[in-house]
Amino acid sequence: MVTYRQSSASGSGAGKARRFRRDARSTHSQEDGLATDKVDLSPWGNALLHALSPEDIAILGPELEATPLRKDEVVFQPGEPAPYVWFPRNGIISIVALDEDGSAIEVAIIGREGMTGLPIVLGSESIIYASMVQVPGEGWRIATPVFRGIVERRPAIKAMMLRYVLAAMTQMGQNAACGQLHNVESRCARWLLLAHDDVDGDTFSLTQDYLAMMLGVTRPSVSGAASGLQRAGLIRYVRGQITVLNRAGLEAASCECYNIVRREFERLLRR
Ligand SMILES: [Zn+2]
Known about the structure:
Helix 7 packs across helix 8 (219-231). By secondary structure, this protein is α+β, with helices and mostly antiparallel strands. The chain folds into 2 domains: 20-39 and 182-268, Orthogonal Bundle (Arc Repressor Mutant, subunit A), CATH 1.10.10.10; 47-177, Jelly Rolls. The longest helix is centred in the middle third of the chain and has 27 residues, at 155-181. A hairpin with a 2-residue loop joins strand 9 and strand 10. The protein is built from 10 helices and 10 strands. Bound molecules: zinc ion. The site of zinc ion has 6 residues, from helix 6.
């Protein structure tokens, strides 16, 4: 998912994005071409929670339960109330649109920059899209009625969640534009950057079927795109395991949508 830049950053537009991360450890060196200047989101590892004031997180934090994100788990069934709202800190939840024969296409992704439960923030119980775990990891969850009550009592929390809704709308709109405007390889690079932002380390599991679904293209198309990125030395893709080898190169290979959405998240979710 998107990245987050501190206001004290050089801001030179050098193109090297800062990644959300869980803690202060840096696992990369300058030499390997990977981002080193990542924003510290500790202790929660989630940008939305990180952005809340001490007073607000003191209210919300005790209600959050650390929980694994399990591969393929559906955390929001289409058209049904969700029992929990999730704040990922490692891993990816996809919002997917399903057609009548069960085919799915990704509408948006949720990682450590965000949360599930946009309908709840907006006053609805449900949404027609499903939300499911694509890349496993862990996160925080809170029972929906408890979350709803806190959001209603704490205007600053609600305001932050509403700004996140706007950021998520930007992501969805840009995804729609991206699908029409940009080629599969640059879109594939963009998606891999988003995934890299949302996981610890540089390797994550992702089948080509999932990647094809996320990009809304055929499996041969996504296979060709991934092969191109691999030949360029930007990623390694072996048995469903993707390793980002050259973060800066992957950013250069991505369409501009990655940075457009990233900047909007930075603007809206500033602490
Ligand atoms: Zn694009």
